[in-house]
Amino acid sequence: MKARCLCDAVEIDAHNNSVKVEACHCAMCRKWGGGPLLVIACGDEVTINGEDHVSLHPSSDWAERGFCRRCGTHLFYRLSDSKQYMVPAGLFDEQGEFVFEEQIFIDKKPGYYSFANATHNLTEAQVFEKFAPGTES
User: Fold this and answer.
1) Which residues are registered as beta bridge partners of 48?
2) Please, which contacts does 107-116 make with residues 24 or more away whose CB atoms are closer than 8 Å?
3) Is the pLDDT of residue 135 over 80?
4) What is the per-residue pLDDT across 7-23, written as a single tens digit (0 to 9) for each?
């Protein structure tokens, strides 16, 4: 699956071909994009073409966020240790088979929006228990 930034300076080739869309409602994701972050979990088998146009921001002790330095497109959220990439769903060329499946930090979602889709929902505590045992926000 191929994803591109707005100006086409950066192309991301995700090799796992997941079609599951996940939403994150944490404060950092909402601040980064102005709303929930809708992503495809792409694993660690990702190729980035145009890497010289990618800037990184270490947003926490465990993750960093990449964006295109030419057009500002948010390219990925990447876990520091495992190099697992989460790529915004809207960047992919083909989106026809995407399925909205999970929402995380559901207890941090503000009341001014809500999705109608039936999804699996995890609270902040459940996310940290599942992905980073012993880590607190």
Assistant:
1) 12
2) 108/25, 108/26, 108/27, 109/25, 109/36, 110/25, 110/30, 113/35, 113/36, 115/23
3) no
4) 999 999 999 879 999 99
Tokens coding 61: 């002790």
Angle at 98 between CA 110 and CA 131, to 5 degrees: 55
| Distance (Å, whole) CA 72 – CA 68 | 5
C-alpha–C-alpha distance, residues 24 and 106, integer Å? 8
Which two tokens mark 9? 């300076």
Query: How do beta strands 99-104 and 120-122 pair?
Result: parallel
Whichever domain contains 10, its CATH number is 2.170.150.70
In a domain, 111, yes or no: yes
Tokens encoding 4: 């591109």
103 found inside a domain? yes
